[in-house]
Write a structure and sequence with these properties.
alpha+beta; seven-stranded mixed sheet; five-stranded antiparallel sheet; 20 strands; 19% strand; globular; binds flavin-adenine dinucleotide
């Protein structure tokens, strides 16, 4: 079918492809700086993987991301997201693990209360926790500044190289030799080995595991998995608390609704149901985009919020990119290892061992992973294409905290599931979707036996659904695995980590760029800053 081409009357300063939270963040900053900015989103709603959607009549869920932990405080403040309707309440406990023997272990906002919990199980581990938690917080502070700035420019030479060296050195001012060794061991070591070295109780180790390795490839004994311990101690929330975990009132879509409102207030236009078919390149630079409906939109700058594989392999003609770069993009590890099951229930889950006297919000989350060994075996099955019989499931009964999500008598529970393969060894995900849903429910039933019989509606999002519905290539929730060789100056690929691309005038602003995935707003913020700098220096 040939689509007749129409040309949008206006030339924009910047067109942002994709209205995920990073695209909206970038658009808001660009519009705030006075650029005529247009966001084009393929779905009928903005938000990407940060949305609230109706999954049954009157029942709304955070269908993909479900907890706000690393949303940058600077982005919240700069874009005045609170004024635009964003309200978060700390998860307290931030984590609760029920064990098969009926015991539960919680991680509270108040460290003293967490220590009290650990003391019940192992006084030695409680002491270790106090010592290590402070050390981890200190180490996380060295990494924190890198979140909201471009990664080190390893190509810079001469004066620029010297400036870059000084910048990186200033971030590590005061670091001791022992701390450098610890940082390197967190970047390269495994979480399992770290926990085995330091803790004696399997339950305490499992609590620490349950806070980590989300959405990434690798079990707890995979090298590099210890890094999650530091990532989760970066500050978040409006008050910049280290280790913040937040429920978002109205679901995660309230974050992107606030961002879209901020972007519009600064003058950005946002169009939904507007899939981009191609990024137009002419005279060696990006010139705008062509929509699937045939509309051409001209722009000085194109900013892609779409993951790097989809951007470079799907939206650009291959001859516009160097061969070596294309090879590197092909090689980005994606094949997302997780899924999501969203449920509407007729009664609240009754978790065995949930302490009496807990309030509804204290009962709002629980993580089902009985041990490190279990998690490791689960990953082993998934990495060779199988669907584990029993899964690691992170449950949030969001309606316990936010009654706007469901009418009386209904409860909304979201379940993040790992590990599952993107590529199945047997069958297809269309054939196995129900099997996954059944296995998740069977796993939950071991801890909350009333759940299966109270299911009113169930939505199962396999990796292929995350790809089809949310546009996440290979179902990867972070636009590329968060492994060391795909982080910092190697994200999305070595040599192109500073939001620019080999096509002048084309930038990336999504989770596939530094510092990576999660609802942080950091890539969008950093990309906008880079673009504005380049425009000032006429280098864009
Ligand atoms: C199941 C799941 C659970 C998660 N849980 C959490 C969590 O609890 N906490 C957390 O912090 N993070 C979580 N994450 C990760 C986090 O949601 C993502 O890393 C983050 O939202 C990515 O944001 P983004 O703006 O970079 O990209 P996206 O949100 O992927 O946005 C990209 C946008 O581009 C659009 N698009 C794609 N192609 C085109 C095109 N051709 N034309 C126009 N538009 C296009 C897409 O529709 C999408 O809206 C989760 C993700 C998933 C999927």
């Amino acid at each position: 079918m040939t689509v007749s081409q129409s040309v949008s009357a206006r030339t924009y300063d910047a067109v942002v492809v994709g209205g995920g939270h990073n695209g909206l963040t970038a658009a808001a900053y660009l519009a705030r700086a006075g650029l005529a900015t247009l966001v084009l989103e393929r779905r009928e709603i903005v938000g990407g993987a940060c949305v609230t959607e109706e999954i049954a009549p009157g029942c709304r869920a955070s269908t993909t991301s479900y907890i706000a932990s690393m949303l940058r405080p600077e982005v919240i403040r700069d874009l005045e997201l609170a004024r635009h309707g964003l309200r978060m309440v700390p998860c307290d406990p931030a984590l609760l693990v029920p064990f098969p023997d009926g015991q539960t272990l919680a991680w509270w906002c108040d460290p003293a209360r967490t220590v009290g919990e650990l003391e019940r199980i192992s006084p030695a581990d409680a002491r270790t926790f106090v010592r290590l938690h402070e050390e981890l917080k200190r180490l996380a502070r060295y990494l924190q500044p890198f979140f909201l700035e471009a990664p080190p420019d390893v190509e810079a030479r001469g004066l620029a190289g010297l400036r870059e060296t000084l910048r990186v050195r200033s971030r590590f001012r005061g670091i001791s030799g022992a701390e450098i060794a610890r940082l390197v061991s967190f970047l390269t070591g495994s979480l399992g080995d770290f926990l085995d070295r330091n803790y004696e109780s399997e339950k305490v180790k499992t609590l620490l595991l349950a806070n980590n390795v989300y959405g990434k490839h690798g079990g707890p004994y995979t090298p590099g998995s210890a890094l999650g311990l530091l990532f989760h101690l970066l500050s978040g929330g409006e008050q910049a608390q280290q280790g913040f975990y937040g429920h978002v009132i109205g679901g995660m879509g309230a974050i992107t609704a606030a961002m879209a409102s901020a972007a519009r207030e600064h003058g950005a236009q946002i169009r939904t149901s507007a899939p981009v078919a191609r990024i137009e390149v002419g005279g060696g630079r990006a010139r705008g985009v062509l929509l699937e409906d045939g509309t051409a939109v001209a722009a000085r700058i194109v900013v892609s919020n779409v993951d790097p594989k989809r951007t470079f392999l799907g939206l650009l003609e291959p001859e516009t990119l160097p061969e070596e770069f294309l090879r590197a993009v092909h090689g980005i590890k994606m094949d997302g290892p997780c899924a999501k099951v969203n449920l509407v229930l007729s009664e609240e889950p009754r978790v065995t061992g949930m302490p009496r006297g807990f309030t509804a919000s204290q009962r709002a989350l629980f993580t089902l992973v009985p041990s490190l060994r279990f998690a490791e075996e689960c990953y082993d099955i998934a990495k060779s294409g199988g669907i584990p019989e029993k899964l690691w499931v992170d449950c949030v009964v969001a309606s316990n905290v936010d009654e706007t999500l469901a009418p009386a008598g209904r409860h909304v529970m979201t379940c993040f599931v790992q590990y599952v393969p993107y590529r199945l060894k047997w069958g297809t995900w269309d054939d196995r979707r129900d099997l996954l849903g059944d296995r998740v429910l069977r796993t939950i039933a071991e801890y909350a036996p009333n759940v299966p019989s109270s299911v009113v509606a169930r939505q199962v999002l396999t990796p292929i659904d995350l790809e089809r519905i949310y546009g996440l290539t290979e179902g990867n929730i972070f636009h590329g695995d968060l492994c060391l060789e795909q982080l910092f100056f190697m994200r999305p690929v070595a040599g192109w980590a500073r939001y620019r691309t080999p096509v002048p005038g084309l930038y990336l602003c999504g989770a596939g760029t530094h510092p990576g995935g999660g609802v942080t707003g950091a890539p969008g913020h950093n990309a906008a800053r880079q673009i504005l700098r380049d425009l000032r220096r006429r280098a864009a």
